[in-house]
Specification:
single chain, mainly alpha, 2 domains, two-stranded antiparallel ribbon, 7 helices, 54% helix, 10% strand, globular
Length: 186
């Protein structure tokens, strides 16, 4: 495979991984900023720039009340085998199951009612209506209200065939609610 073709394949894989990462981040932190693939420059033997290495970059905003970090403690003991993290598990499941892959893809750009509906639909397909009802328990009514609202907006509001529920939930609150429920399902 030519060097340029390898770079294209690597970049395609990086885009897929970043898309899944962004979907997963939305489930973990509904206010997460997107991570974007970028290019890091390398130089050939002749000193000219080559765009062959790919990297990830992110915009990070830290506020005093909202700092996220992970720390590991070390001891003099031999290192223990790390168990699979939730992020690693979700990546693996997305590789093995198209429903997980589709869900993380829709969550990546979850800024409209249509993608919210599609994400809810995928979750329902993944676990089935009965199990989803069990997982939601006391929040099933709110889920159904958001579902109905998203479905109405998805059909370019048709008050006759797809009436909005009263009261009609706001998109931002609905998005956060659905992300919390998806975290329970996953």
């Amino acid at each position: 495979m030519e060097r340029d073709q390898r770079g294209f394949v690597i970049y395609g894989d990086a885009r897929r991984i970043v898309e899944r990462l962004n979907g997963i981040l939305q489930v973990i932190h509904s206010d997460a900023k997107p991570v974007k693939p970028g290019k890091a420059l390398t130089f050939g033997p002749d000193g000219k720039r080559e765009n062959a290495t790919h990297a990830l970059s992110a915009s990070v905003n830290i506020t005093l009340g909202n700092v996220r970090m992970r720390a590991y403690a070390t001891t003099g003991d031999a290192p223990k085998k790390q168990s699979e993290t939730i992020l690693q598990r979700w990546f693996r499941e997305a590789e093995e199951d198209r429903h997980h892959a589709d869900l993380f893809s829709h969550l990546t750009h979850l800024d409209n009612w249509s993608d919210l509906y599609k994400s809810m639909e995928i979750v329902r397909r993944m676990v089935g209506k009965t199990r989803l009802s069990s997982i939601l328990s006391g929040e099933k009514k709110q889920w159904d209200t958001v579902w109905q609202t998203a479905n109405c907006h998805r059909h370019a509001p048709d008050p006759t065939n797809y009436p909005l529920p009263v009261p009609t939930p706001e998109f931002g609150d609905s998005r956060v609610f659905v992300l919390k429920q998806i975290a329970k399902v996953l």
